[in-house]
Amino acid sequence: MKVLITGGAGFIGSNLAKRMADDGNDVVVLDSLLRGNKLEKETFEKIKFIHGDVRDLELVTKASNGCDVIFHFAAVLGVDIVADNPVETMDVEVIGTRNVVMAAEINNIKKIMYASTSGIYSSAIEGALTEEVLVDPHTSYAMAKRYNEIYLTSHHQEKGIDVVCLRFFNVYGWNQDNRMVIPLFFEQAIAGNNITVFGSGEQTRDFTYIDDTIESCVRLMDLKGCHIVNIANEAEWCIMDVAKQIKDITNSTSEISYVEAPKKRYDYEVERRVGSSKKLMRLTEYKPHTELNDGLSKIYKRNY
């Protein structure tokens, strides 16, 4: 089949582009390259790359011509970048998603796969977060993601476009840049610098390995109807434990330093987050399964 991946030169998008191209699909990537190009040379040679902004309707329409599926992964990412650029963050999300939907209608494309986020959930809920719990977005990024979930659901109801909203839980893996905590910790550990942990380090996240994430996306691609699905590992890890594991894997002499989070990060800091993959398992007979230490070890061997 032919697929368009917006944001396909980013971390998750580039991994998806590689998988889709390796599987023999005709892949088109649309990316502004504001955060660089993470597509490997071998993958880049297999795809059609279009340099541009998802907020350009004419360009999105042209890029998606003849496609069977649009993977809409273009977004502004990184807590510091999002906190400093809330308007651009929401514009990319809202205008970009509107353009993707309009292009799908113009080109008679019946499937959109949208990259949402676990950031729309409240951190006050006990146990693993399911897709049925009441969400509580309170940042520009999370609000825009939730808006797009509702917007896409509405288009399914009115226009019949099949939609899968993918709520990613802290995806990590090789080729991720240091806007994210795990590559930052690796960079600090390898350099022998202090590994800086915000707050007490007891806050938890559900870290999901990139290969598991991509496999989940591919398996969900054939779904009909409209679905919101967690992509989660169902495992809860303290940030300080992640720092300790990376220090051990790299044999680093770095000290773990606990520092106060910058004020601009306050709205983005949550105490705990772990997701349920029961719906994913029911729909695909698959769930992410890579243990954190195994995933971290794979990153170290491949990246460093």
Would you write up a description of this structure?
It is globular, with a radius of gyration of 19 Å. It has helices spanning 11-22, 41-44, 57-63, 79-84, 86-106, 140-159, 181-191, 210-220, 239-249, 278-284, 292-303; strands spanning 2-6, 26-31, 48-51, 69-72, 111-117, 162-168, 171-172, 195-198, 204-205, 208-209, 226-231, 237-238, 256-259. The protein starts with a strand and ends with a helix. It has a seven-stranded parallel sheet, with helices on both faces. A two-stranded parallel ribbon has the order 7-10. Strands 8-13 form a two-stranded parallel sheet. The model has no long low-confidence stretch (mean pLDDT 94). With 304 residues, it is α/β, with parallel strands linked by helices. Helix 1 links the parallel strand 1 and strand 2 (26-31). The protein is built from eleven helices and 13 strands. It folds into two domains: 2-171 and 208-231, Rossmann fold, CATH 3.40.50.720; 173-205 and 235-275 and 290-303, UDP-galactose 4-epimerase, domain 1 (Alpha-Beta Complex), CATH 3.90.25.
